[in-house]
Design a protein that fits this description.
CATH superfamily: NADP-dependent oxidoreductase domain
Strand order of the largest sheet: 3-4-5-8-9-10-11-12
Bound molecules: NADP nicotinamide-adenine-dinucleotide phosphate
Number of domains: 1
Number of helices: 11
Amino acid sequence: MNRQLGIKGPMVSAIGLGCMGMSGAYGESDEKESIATIERALELNHNFLDTADYYLAGHNEQLIAQAIKGKRDKAFLSVKTGMMLSPGGYGGVNGHPDFLRNAVMYSLQRLKTDYIDLYTLGRVDPNVPIEDSVGALAELVQKGVVRFIGLSEASAESIRRAATVHTITALQTEYSLWTRDIEDEILPTIRELGIGLVAYAPLSRGFLSGTYKKPEDIKDNRAHMPRYQGENFYKNLELVEKVKMLASQKGCTPSQLAIAWVLAQGEDIITIPGTKRVKYLEDNIASENVRLSSGDLRAISEILPAGVVSGTRYPERFMSALNR
Ligand SMILES: NC(=O)c1ccc[n+]([C@@H]2O[C@H](COP(=O)([O-])OP(=O)(O)OC[C@H]3O[C@@H](n4cnc5c(N)ncnc54)[C@H](OP(=O)(O)O)[C@@H]3O)[C@@H](O)[C@H]2O)c1
């Protein structure tokens, strides 16, 4: 299933592939299986591949380059930039025009391509006017190295200002059954402006799949996120039990219910469940076959109303970079 991204944007797969976990974000990964997962996505015509230059310092882009070799035209490459991640953690953001002009050249080299389909400012830099950052991205469109421009986790005000400089095709932000912060202001704003939504972490980083039973099961970056710690973990686990119950009523897995719910929130939304395994990719793609009626959606809202989750989705230092 394809959807149009943004009112004037390209047709892309409604279920894409988030590649971040292939580069160490969520435990160890196997390169062969990661590459096979990307290849399988393309084989199944799920072309939207999401990466960032800051996923293990370009490692993620290099993996993608291997998987799309000889079939660049089959892939829609969504690349984020402007955020600084290091093995030690968060290193701030950089939306300076010079940084962006430089970063894209390295991404092209690592991806072994001469264009990026969707180039997204990973976070808004509070020290650089958004008009300047987007102005630099617009130059890249003019040069022909970028096709479409995106923003990630931006505020409604920044989105409006950015859209005065150049067409913004998509906003990438976290959106899932229990992360619904964008519904009050951001979603109406992008709808008004004809900007599509790329919903990331539709499984709440795997939690909604029902895989995790106790906080100690999580040994990677997620262990630093308040939502997956101590008491919050157990309160949220009760919600996962409800998702499991709803899924069994629909004859699907909890992950499939979670993905289908995101897609049911509007034709202007696509989602990018992340996985490094062919099996999960295929299961996630099968969510397209889960049809949620308006009655189902109402029942889900009653059982899991907005704001029901316990704990913030990022640690404090990361939260401050959201909604700027
Ligand atoms: N713009 C941003 O700030 C931002 C932030 C975070 C992520 N992203 C992008 O969004 C993508 C998706 O988000 P995410 O990966 O953080 O979270 P997610 O998609 O909610 O969940 C990924 C986790 O769920 C597991 N999983 C996937 N499918 C499953 C299935 N069918 N059954 C059981 N477990 C399953 C994965 O396991 P395995 O790893 O074992 O396969 C992984 O641990 C990322 O890959 C990245 O490209 C963007």
